Every structure is written in C-alpha cells, then in structure tokens.
Amino acid sequence: MQFCQQTIQAMAKDEYFGPGNAQLPKGQMLMIDEISHISRSGGRYQQGQVIAQFKIRPDFWFFDCHFQNDPVMPGCLGLDAMWQLLGVFLGFCGLPGRGRAIGVGNVRFSGQIYPRHEVIEYRLDIKRVFQKPLALALADGAVYQQGKAIYQAQDLKVGLVPA
Prior knowledge:
With 163 residues, the protein is of the alpha+beta class. 19% of the residues lie in helices and 36% in strands. The chain is globular and about 50 Å long. Its EC number is 4.2.1.59, 5.3.3.14.
C-alpha cells in the first residue's frame, strides 16, 4: 500500500486515522511527502516495512539557520521523520492512541543533506509491535541520499498514548 501527498496532509490534520489516533505533525515539522510502501509483512525482520520520500527544497526554514554559510538539514529532523513514520505504522495497524517518540538505541550519521539534494528516502524495518500494556513499535531505520544510507538508527521506539 502507498499514501500520496494528499493523504499525508490528511494524516497531519488528524483526519486519516480518526480523532485521538496517530497523526503526523503539520506545517514545517512534517518531514514526509509520500509513503511509497507500507506493509505489515516483509522487511528485514518480516514484521513490516515503511518506505517514504521527502522532497528537499533550498528554501526550507532549517537551511537558513543551520548553519550560517554552511546550510545542512539537521540530523535530528531525519530522526524525527523516522519516528513520525513509525507512528503512522502503528495507526496503519489499526491501533488506537496518539503517537509519541519513546526512544532510540543507536544513531549514526555518515552524511549530510544539502539544499542541492532533491529527494531523500526513509526506510523502516519493523522489528516488533506490542499491543499491551500500550501499543508500541520497535524498528530499525535509515535515511538515504542518492541511494546511500547517511543516517542509521537502531531500535527506534514509538508508543501510542490515550488521547
């Protein structure tokens, strides 16, 4: 299954999974344009996979302030995008509650995203989904620039809390 830009915007307005359930941030914190693949099976651990894209524009707000005369996308925004996608995965699984980043095991940055880059890709391999005592997903993820993994995160954790 995939989700287009219009559906992503609906997820940011709390219209897709229903009030009180998983949603994406809106405005400048939305780091996703399209989800090209989401599945409850497959991936490295055979527990599910999410693949999404984000189109880079030279006029993004973060390039003006990070850093002066050396604009790069902050790595924390790529990490946040992976948490955003893991929350979407929980909503996609039909689990109730609002998504919250709970943690990450290990993060490694080996490249940067500049204003000249056109598109980045996120990939999540779901390791496990827990339903009790609260809905929680565990995944490994990466941000790809021109086919090369430049951010890698192990043991991303997102939980769903009651609205």
